[in-house]
Specification:
The protein is α/β, with parallel strands linked by helices. Helix content is 21%, strand content 39%. The chain contains two helices and eight strands, in the order βββαβββαββ.
Length: 150
């Protein structure tokens, strides 16, 4: 599972010109679900996201978690995070999970994050053409790959 986590002051998702979800201060998360991903990846990643200390404390140091600042989450599925550009110029997506495997994992990720945050999160719609807008705060952008924990 690959996540691109962006600290934002606001973010929104539109589908066919209509707003699906929007948040204020919080995290915009692009989530790529791979063929090898399991519930263990979801549990580890959701805990990491909620506990990641990337929000400023009173002294301006990144020392507070999303939960500590009562931030929001906007989670958008994005299979292109599993793009392979090793061969040729047209990306391949063989490592991305097919929809029948990815959709249940995406829904579980939503449930885990909502439980951890103790409130609903914003989402996109799996498989839809979406327009995502955001104001990256910092900017702070952090990639996390559950198969390459570094």
């Amino acid at each position: 599972m690959i996540a691109i986590i962006q600290r934002v002051s606001q973010a929104a998702v539109q589908i066919e010109g209509k707003e699906k979800s929007s948040i204020g201060k919080g995290l915009m998360i692009l989530l790529g679900i791979g063929r090898e991903d399991t519930d263990e990846d979801i549990e580890w990643l959701s805990r990491k996201i909620v506990q990641l200390r990337i929000f400023d404390d009173e002294e301006g140091k990144m020392n507070k978690s999303l939960k500590e600042v009562n931030g929001d989450i906007l989670l958008v599925s994005q299979f292109t995070l599993h793009a392979s550009t090793k061969k040729g110029n047209r990306p391949g997506y063989n490592e991305a999970a097919p929809p029948e495997a990815a959709i249940p994992l995406y829904n579980k990720m939503i449930a885990f994050l909502e439980q951890a945050m103790e409130k609903p999160i914003g989402t996109g719609t799996f498989g839809a053409m979406m327009q995502v807008s955001l104001i990256n705060d910092g900017p702070v952008t952090i990639p996390i790959d559950t198969k390459n924990k570094r």
